[in-house]
Amino acid sequence: MRPGAAADITDQRGRIVAVATPAQRVVFLPMPAPSTYMAIDRSAAHVAGMNPASASAMRSGILGRIFPAFDRIPTGITRGAGVIPNVEAVMALHPDAVLQWASFGDEPIAMLDRAGLTVLGLRYGGQDEVAGAILMMGKLAGQEARAAEIVDRQRERRETLAAALAGVGDADKPRVLHLSRASDSFAVAGRESYLDVVITTAGGRNAAAEIGGSRTVTLEQVLTWNPDVILLGNFDTAMPADLYGDPRLQSLAAVKARRVYKVPLGGYRWDPPSHESALTWTWLAGLLHPDRIGIDLRADMRAWYEFLYGHALAEAEIDGILHARQNGGSAGYARFVTAR
């Protein structure tokens, strides 16, 4: 599809940016964004460059099999890890638009603005911002109706879960700690993080709610919080067996009850916000409140993957996404795993 006339797109900095749509060449600095764009666009053809961490998730997860052309997309667009752009490398890709975080300080996005590139700023704080980002990408791709359907389906799932969890008092909401790092130190997600949205949507309480954002904490702090449930993020190598075998952690309620879980990795990592977030909420709600959540997660995943990617998930693919082997020794996980 050839680009049409310039469309005015309001980015999440509040700036009005003129972009020829549908864009043919888009570069993505934010890690979750290219997989979302591929789902909206139903193709990897218009992703001209992406963060190397995005490619790593695609290679480790299922998206690389759904869109095998991802492996030819340039990734040398950052300076080191993170979102500091290699401006010269980005310019060499001749993008129609560049997406960059608007919430990681001014300079990472200002560098691109100063180079005269067409830049759209993203914010992924609460769910409203995530929905806004999806709608913005839909307009950029010339797929506004499809993006709106993704947002509507996510909203409907939040409403379904809220209804199922209505009446659950605070005392019955497990205290959940998300560890984005646990292999060599402890990094947690506090309030004002997207994981706080995930935990509360699924009927839990964030054990790290007293701190803001995401930060590194001490072992002593983790022991003091004593969470009922621990989630292990996908930016780290730690697995439930590592925590179950760590002598320093044996007093934790989550370890004693074997309620430590590796967060799934699907079309993108399920811990950050994405087009698959409804599945993240459903997965966690099923672990926290199995008596209230009647959704068959495996059937739900098949339906979502057909909608998002036109892909029919095999049983082994579902097990891989859910880290069935790594989570198999954790409490309550049998309900998600293929019968053997």
From TrEMBL:
Record GO biological process: cellular response to iron ion
UniProt domain Fe/B12 periplasmic-binding: residue ranges: 25-292
CDD domains with a match to the protein in the record: TroA_e
Pfam families: Peripla_BP_2
Chain segments annotated as transmembrane: none
Name assigned to this protein: Iron ABC transporter substrate-binding protein
Organism of this sequence: Rhodoplanes elegans
